């Protein structure tokens, strides 16, 4: 007997296994990445799906949207939407729900962990002790964080959460956005270059996409300078990764803490050899609490769209 549950196409497995289970319980789910021949599956069955679930990291390419002639709604796990093909989705007339708000604190915590680690050398210290070493002289000295200047590129929800943490470390905070944030207590810098020149620590929380691609380039890195640290928890595309590798290798900046990369899952090979870079596999939102809250919003967006034609939270293209 045919199921009466709505059919949902999952683009791939979710970062939280329980969400796969929740979706399978509520809907008639098929996972595209698990099909033996995804292209053929789409050609044969694409017309049967009105609803699709994906993640900000996996995105959604035009070739998939184009193969789903009846697609009405996409529920995306994540706050970024640069990897979802906007033009294809608008052409199709499909609406998109996403999960902002619930991950701000965890992403800001990760920015802070990367900032502290790159300045104070915690990962390097851990490797040092595990190698059986102890000498403080051989380990060397690191850089103070408290009381320094914190620059934030992208003063949105996550940038504001990073700024709040800076206050606890007695840091002066400045930021750059396309325009000043009304009511912000922080110093506004007219350009990213000026912000980098001003900052000891430059934290990137700006959205990815064509508008911000490679804005952190050679010039910005030189403005940050040999005492400066770069932290990126936004999108790898915002930073010219080859320029960053060169700046780290030559000591034109002091260090970097990176959760995101230009070509995930393949960070620039030379980054892997650098002692002054701390690397994480795009896991800033990856805590039990936040992933569960994101999963709940993915489910809520889907359920509300099916029931009312409007998701709880919709992407503001
Ligand atoms: C997000 O939610 O956009 C995270 O960066 C995961 O991709």
From TrEMBL:
The keyword Oxidoreductase applies. Transmembrane segments: none annotated. InterPro entries: D-isomer_2-hydroxyacid_DH, D-isomer_2_OHA_DH_cat_dom, D-isomer_DH_NAD-bd, NAD(P)-bd_dom_sf. This is 2-hydroxyacid dehydrogenase. PANTHER family: 2-HYDROXYACID DEHYDROGENASE YGL185C-RELATED, 2-HYDROXYACID DEHYDROGENASE-RELATED. It comes from Comamonas endophytica. Residues 113-284 form the D-isomer specific 2-hydroxyacid dehydrogenase NAD-binding domain. It holds the Pfam family 2-Hacid_dh. Belongs to the D-isomer specific 2-hydroxyacid dehydrogenase family. Residues 20-315 form the D-isomer specific 2-hydroxyacid dehydrogenase catalytic domain. Keywords: NAD, Oxidoreductase. Coiled coil: none annotated.
